[in-house]
C-alpha cells in the first residue's frame, strides 16, 4: 500500500544539537502514526500522567524531560509527528519528510487506532521506512493499538495487530491512553530500557574496536635460539 500523506507541509519542531554524553545519558524516541490515533495524548500521558483529548493537529512537538527509570534519572526526548490523513500517488515526499526524524531517533512507537483501519494500514510502510534508515534489526520498534477502550467502534482486531507485529518482527500491544495511565508508562519505559541497552552495547563494541592489540614480546628462549642460528650461519 502507499504511505498516506499530510494535509499540510510536514514541519517538525527544531531538534537541538546536544553534546555527546555518556551511554544512557539521553534517550531519543519518535512516535509515528496516522492522524487522530492519539500520539500526542500518549506522550503527554507518559510525561505528566494527565489525559488531554484534544490537540492542535500537525504540530510536531519535541518533548524533553528527565524521567525516573530503574532508579536512575534519564533525559528523554520524544518527537511527536504530524498525522497522515490521505493517500497520494507519490509517497517519496512523505518519506523524505520523515527521514530527518527517523534518522534522529533511537527507538520508535508506531501507533494506530483500533477504531480506524486505515491507520492500521499505515504502520507497515512506516516500519519499512524505519528499517531502511536503521538497517540494524536491534533498533527497537513497538507497534501500539491505541483506544482499546472503544470496543464498540473496533475496526482492527487484536489478532490483526499481533499478526502484523509477528510478520515484521516487532512487539505489539493494545492500550487505552484515556483509561490506562500505567499501560502507557509501561510502553515508554520498556522502549527507553531497550534503547539504553542498545546504547551500552554500542559503547562496548566501540571500546573493543579501539583497543590495539600489543605485539607479543619474544621470550628469552626464542631470542637465544635465533642468536644461535645467526652465529651458525656466520660460521658456515
From TrEMBL:
Residues 203-236 are annotated as: Disordered. Its EC number is 3.6.5.2. InterPro entries: P-loop_NTPase (IPR027417), Ras-related_GTPase (IPR051065), Small_GTP-bd (IPR005225), Small_GTPase (IPR001806). It is an enzyme of class 3 (hydrolase). The keyword rRNA-binding does not apply. The keyword Hydrolase applies. It comes from the Eukaryota. One of its GO terms (molecular function) is GTP binding. Keywords: GTP-binding, Hydrolase, Nucleotide-binding. It catalyses: GTP + H2O = GDP + phosphate + H(+). PANTHER family: RAS-LIKE FAMILY MEMBER 11. Belongs to the small GTPase superfamily. Ras family. This is small monomeric GTPase. The gene is Rasl11a.
Amino acid at each position: 500500500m502507499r504511505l498516506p500523506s499530510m494535509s499540510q507541509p510536514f514541519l517538525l519542531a527544531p531538534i537541538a544539537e546536544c553534546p555527546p554524553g555518556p551511554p544512557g545519558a539521553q534517550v531519543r524516541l519518535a512516535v509515528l502514526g496516522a492522524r487522530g490515533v492519539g500520539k500526542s495524548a500518549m506522550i503527554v500521558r507518559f510525561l505528566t500522567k494527565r489525559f488531554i483529548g484534544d490537540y492542535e493537529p500537525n504540530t510536531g512537538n519535541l518533548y524533553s524531560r528527565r524521567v525516573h527509570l530503574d532508579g536512575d534519572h534519564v533525559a528523554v526526548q520524544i518527537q511527536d509527528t504530524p498525522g497522515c490523513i490521505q493517500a497520494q500517488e507519490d509517497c517519496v515526499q512523505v518519506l523524505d519528510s520523515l527521514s530527518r526524524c527517523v534518522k534522529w531517533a533511537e527507538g520508535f512507537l508506531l501507533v494506530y487506532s483500533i477504531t480506524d483501519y486505515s491507520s492500521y494500514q499505515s504502520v507497515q510502510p512506516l516500519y519499512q521506512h524505519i528499517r531502511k534508515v536503521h538497517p540494524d534489526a536491534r533498533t527497537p520498534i513497538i507497534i501500539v493499538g491505541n483506544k482499546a477502550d472503544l470496543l464498540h467502534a473496533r475496526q482492527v482486531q487484536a489478532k490483526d495487530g499481533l499478526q502484523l507485529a509477528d510478520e515484521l518482527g516487532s512487539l505489539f500491544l493494545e492500550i487505552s491512553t484515556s483509561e490506562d495511565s500505567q499501560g502507557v508508562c509501561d510502553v515508554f519505559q520498556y522502549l527507553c530500557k531497550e534503547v539504553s541497552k542498545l546504547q551500552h552495547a554500542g559503547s562496548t563494541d566501540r571500546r573493543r574496536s579501539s583497543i590495539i592489540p600489543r605485539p607479543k614480546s619474544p621470550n628469552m628462549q626464542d631470542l637465544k635460539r635465533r642468536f644461535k642460528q645467526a652465529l651458525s650461519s656466520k660460521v658456515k
